[in-house]
Amino acid sequence: MAQDNTVDELMQRIARDYEGLSRQLKVIANYIETNRQQMVVARIQDVADACEVQPSAVVRFAQRFGFTGYSELQALFRDAYANSAPSYEQRIRTVIEHHPAKMKSAQLGRGFIESCQAGLADLQRQFDDETFEAAVDLLQEADHIYVTGVRRMFPVAAYLGYALQHTQKRVVLLDGVGGMAREQLRGLREGDVLLAVSMTPYGAETRSAIHLALERGARVLALTDSGLSPIARQAELVLSVREAEAFGFRALSSTISLAQALFIALAYRLELNLAPPEETPEHEH
To answer: Is residue 89's pLDDT more than 90?
Structure first.
């Protein structure tokens, strides 16, 4: 058995060695990082097909990290996850398999909600207290907070831009209106923090903003779906969140929950003072 005794220890080692892996092994690493529970039941051919590689490449990956082969690698995940109860995601996938074309709208709605519950349960299990505290520290220390997220992640970025405006922090939402995203970054400098929200396939605009932030000495906090993503590898701190998927659509529930938790924790830390409600004039008698 490899020296990594837990899934987390293995993933930490993969992250450390990631840049030295071949292209095929990087693809496999990303698959495993984002499909940890599926590794319990995934056959070697399943992994190979998902990564568009030959099974021999999956074996090479296992051996690269000290396992005799795929079976021994898979055993590490089985020890970690096999005894857990079936997730909501597994349940809804079973429903889809049995009712591929006969589901009522209410069944679809309920199934998607259950998939979101699966994502939230996974977020709670994977929640890293130490990293979250450090993320709040980072935002508290920032002179300015710049927030970016494009396409599917824009609603999350827009929420953060709105919510953070309710603190005494100076906040800039990079909405890119009129193609002005780069101009909106003009004031970014050392002492500021870029809060980047990005999931696969990782928007080019977000990656460009991170590159510019690093050039100017700003710090980067990422909300992303993989510790091996190009976003994570460039960020100073990473809050990981993996969304569940149902009917071909990835949810947003876990990401927005983590974003709200981040705002609430920062607001609490800053002793947020909300403006008192407007007084209603007394009626004349």
So the answer is: no
